[in-house]
Amino acid sequence: MEQQIMRTIPYSINLADSFFKRLKGLMFRKEQLVEEGLWIVPCNSIHMCFMNFAIDAVFLNKAGKIVKLVEDLQPWRFVKPIPEAYSVVELPAGSVTKLGLKQGNIINI
User: Fold this and answer.
1) Which of 47, 67, 91, 105 could serve as 95's disulfide partner, Cβ 3.0–4.6 Å?
2) Is 2:100 a contact under the CB 8 Å cutoff?
3) pLDDT category, 27, cuts 50, 70, 90?
4) How far apart are CA 54 and CA 92, in angstroms?
């Protein structure tokens, strides 16, 4: 049985909840994320086209439960659609390990 531990991400999280904000995401950004992230709602797959740095991607269902973790996702890579995912939080590479995030945890943003 997976643990349903509540986790808080102690970063400044920007919300991308409009078509244009979701479309742009972090593309073309020059500097890496530092203690910040982007929460894309709704979203169940991502691409790293036109990205300049790696990220960690945390896919959540509607209840905020982590359904998939993708660590150190490099530019020009893709994550196929995850049917149970409703949103994704894009974080600095290494955040999943640093924050101890696990599949099944509940995220409080």
Assistant:
1) 91
2) no
3) confident
4) 7
Q: Categorize the per-residue pLDDT at 29 as very low, low, confident or very high, splitting at 50, 70 and 90.
A: confident
Q: What is the domain extent for residue 31?
A: 6-108
Distance separating alpha carbons of residues 95 and 6, to the nearest angstrom: 16
Q: Tokens 């955040």 identify what position?
A: 95
Q: Tell me the C-alpha distance between 78 and 66, whole Å.
A: 19
Q: What's the rounded Cα separation, in Å, for the pair 77 and 17?
A: 23
Amino acid (1-letter code) at residue 77: R
**What residue has token string 């300049």?**
52
**Residue 1 lies inside a defined structural domain of this protein:** no
Domain total in the chain? 1
